[in-house]
Fold:
Amino acid sequence: MKNVHVKSWLRVRIRAALVIGVMGLLLPGTPIAQPPASPAAQAAMASGGTCPPLLRQRFERLQDEVEQDLCQYQGQVLLVVNTASLCGFTGQYAGLEALYARYRDQGFVVLGFPSNDFGRQEPGSNQAIAEFCENTFGVKFPMFGKTSVTGRQANPLYRELANRTGQAPGWNFHKYLVARDGQTVRSFNSQTTPDNPDLIRDIEKFLSTKK
Structure:
């Protein structure tokens, strides 16, 4: 009989615990577990919430299509370029890589965004583009998956860059220079080569300015 009473007591306690647990979820003011923050939000929080809105974007890395958070580049001077493999300006890859090698230790980075928007001059897959860039020009600066950079289909980063400068890319190898603060943006057309004195002057000016 004693064992029967113990089992009955245990059943009552278990039921009571379940009821209390359910009621705890329903009562106003009871803390509810929140889903984990997105990777972009985690990066912004890790940096003290200082990541500028322009960089709160995620894009697939060209080589392996692993998502990357642009917040990792906050505080650096960025040269954002839409690229293509079959364009008359494709040779600018060499100059862009030279710029990256020259200034990277000072906080400068080139971000390449292959696009098939102009003249269908980037028809290949991400893998084919990556192999072309590495084998032909030895590109080491960060490159992202093929995307759209103009019109209604433009990705959010390029829409914001166009809004801030009033200039959307008109062809391949248009360039946006972004200051360390992630706010100041200057636009350079496709004919502006990576060794253009005006571009280099602005890069050096932005590099000399603290965030």
Summary: The beta strands are 58-60, 67-69, 77-83, 108-114, 175-178, 185-188. DSSP finds six helices and six strands in the chain.
